[in-house]
């Protein structure tokens, strides 16, 4: 089962690399603004998770440089479980106005980013 999951994961990564969406190109000014705005965002993810790939593709399409962390690493997994409430990826950590919000569900994350930055 683990081996099968590994093979499927590699397949997803391979297809993602071959059919990578075009990265949005912004003016230097716009990119600097986006980079500043997204500093407060962190994507908890697994490299080969299809839902995480879906979100990373959306980030690329939008030209968003959001920090990603590998939730398989014990330290990040613990933070996700304790502060987010469950170990499920992708999860977007939004730290703004002295509040931290943990957003689960790939579709919700993509919708949030599109509404905020499109
Ligand atoms: N409906 C969720 C599905 C996310 C999901 O199933 N993620 C899996 C990884 S592919 C997960 O976090 N499983 C829990 C675990 O691996 O501990 C979404 O669209 O984000």
Descriptive labels:
binds glutathione, 5 helices, 4-stranded mixed sheet, Glutaredoxin, alpha+beta, 118 residues
Note the topology.
Elements: H1 2-18, H2 28-37, E1 41-45, H3 50-62, E2 67-70, H4 74-84, E3 91-96, E4 99-104, H5 106-117
Parallel strand pairs: 1-2
Antiparallel strand pairs: 1-3, 3-4
Helix pairs in contact: 3-5
The protein binds glutathione.
Residues 46, 49, 51, 87-90, 105-107 line the site of glutathione.
The top-level CATH class is Alpha Beta
How many distinct folded domains? 1
Q: In angstroms, what separates the terminal alpha carbons?
A: 40 Å
Largest sheet: 4 strands, mixed
Q: Whole-number radius of gyration?
A: 15 Å
Number of helices: 5
Q: Please provide the ordered H/E string of secondary-structure elements.
A: HHEHEHEEH
Chemical compounds bound to the protein: glutathione
Largest sheet: spatial strand order: 2-1-3-4
CATH topology description = Glutaredoxin
Say how many strands there are: 4
Shape from CA axes? flat
The named CATH superfamily: Glutaredoxin
Structure classification: alpha+beta
Content of β-strand:
15-25%
| CATH architecture field | 3-Layer(aba) Sandwich
Percentage of residues assigned to helices: 40-55%
Domain GST N-terminal: 39-118
Protein name: Glutathione S-transferase N-terminal domain-containing protein
InterPro entries: GLR_AS, Glutathione_S-Trfase_N, Thioredoxin-like_sf
Pfam family, one: GST_N_3
């Amino acid at each position: 089962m683990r081996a099968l999951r590994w093979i499927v994961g590699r397949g997803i990564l391979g297809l993602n690399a071959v059919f990578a969406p075009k990265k949005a190109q912004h003016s230097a000014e716009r990119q600097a603004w986006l980079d500043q705005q997204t500093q407060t965002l962190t994507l908890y993810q697994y490299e080969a998770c299809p839902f995480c790939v879906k979100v990373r593709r959306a980030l690329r399409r939008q030209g968003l440089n959001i920090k990603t962390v590998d939730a398989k690493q014990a330290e990040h997994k613990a933070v996700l479980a304790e502060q987010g409430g469950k170990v499920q990826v992708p999860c977007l950590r939004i730290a703004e106005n002295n509040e931290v919000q943990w957003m689960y569900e790939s579709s919700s994350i993509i919708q949030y980013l599109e509404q905020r930055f499109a």
